[in-house]
Amino acid sequence: MSAHTSTATMRAVSQDAYGPPEVLREVEQKRPQPGLGQVLVAVHAAGVNPTDWKHRSGGLFRDDPPSVLGWDVSGVVEAVGLGVALFKPGDEVFGMLPYPHGAGSHAEYVAGPARAFAHKPSGIDHVEAGALPLAALTAWQALVDVADVQAGQRVLIQAAAGGVGHLAVQIAKARGAHVIGTASAGKHDFLRSLGADELIDYRTTDFADAVRGVDVVFDTLGGDARARSLTTLREGGLLVTILPYGEKELAEQAAQLGVRTEGMLVEADHAGMKAIAGLVESGRLRAEIAGTFPLADAAKAHEVGETGRTTGKLVLVMR
């Protein structure tokens, strides 16, 4: 391969149809160029999130394939488009591409808005930085922007050992909250090490019987658990769900109980990424890495993730 073609193209993981992990395959694509207000990032690592396998299997919010998935990015700025003043080539950055239509980080290069990124904290490597953006922004936006969690409040976090959950535990603790989490017993020691105050083994205990009077519930599960979570709230308390389906019905149930609900989708967020970087730098936030995979093994990462049993985050490594 000549030098010219190697810089003009890149490896990416794409799919031509919806389906199981096997639809993912490594392809060679044209390398993107940064447009107005965009940076081109040489991707070193990119997290894999539940939204990736939901999109892979059925589209969710995006247009039909062919498509490259991936919203998380950690890497090095390769080039900047016109009007970008925040970053220069050579800067280490991390961030989340605009959700849902800005995907495409499961590749060697990606272009995205400069303000989707922040400077990568120097104390962590690209794998940990690549694990953080989507999951940490989801938790930050839910707990800080939507719920405005305050010191001394009681917060119930569902699926506390999951990718979003284990970051939510740390963000709530950094806000001074009393954190209650649901997780299988084998994950309790891990969650205590992150600062969780009370833990409920959902396999042996019904959280809806065990918990009362919380100020905020953070729902990452949806389904039956979400409706039952409403009973754990104090009067006027708030449930924030990141699965904003069936909201009308949920809001009606909440109103009968004298509590509130909000549904949200994560958004690209420069200020949020800077806040997350600050928590990382102060030692109050870290991503647990459940596994790393080379880009070519993206299908394997999806398989592992879809078991729903991982503690922390799975990450694809490009370099």
Features:
single chain, alpha/beta, Quinone Oxidoreductase, Chain A, domain 1, Rossmann fold, 7-stranded mixed sheet, 11 helices, disordered N terminus
Write the topology of this structure.
Layout: H1 3-8, E1 9-15, E2 24-30, E3 38-48, H2 50-58, E4 67-68, E5 72-80, E6 92-96, E7 109-113, E8 117-119, H3 126-131, H4 133-146, E9 154-157, H5 163-174, E10 178-182, H6 188-193, E11 198-200, H7 207-210, E12 214-219, H8 223-229, E13 233-241, H9 247-257, E14 260-263, H10 270-281, E15 289-294, H11 298-306, E16 313-317
Parallel strand pairs: 9-10, 9-12, 10-11, 12-13, 13-14, 15-16
Antiparallel strand pairs: 1-2, 1-4, 3-5, 3-7, 3-16, 5-6, 6-8
Distance between the termini: 19 Å
The unreliable regions are: 1-5
Element-by-element helix/strand order = HEEEHEEEEEHHEHEHEHEHEHEHEHE
How many helices? The count is: 11
**CATH architecture group name of the largest domain:** Alpha-Beta Complex
- Structural class designation: alpha/beta
The count of DSSP E runs of length 2 or more, i.e. the number of strands, is: 16
Radius of gyration: 20 Å
Sheet with most strands: 7 strands, mixed
Which band does the percent of strand residues land in?
25-35%
What is the CATH level 1 assignment of the largest domain?
Alpha Beta
Q: Tell me the name of the CATH homologous superfamily of the largest domain.
A: Medium-chain alcohol dehydrogenases, catalytic domain
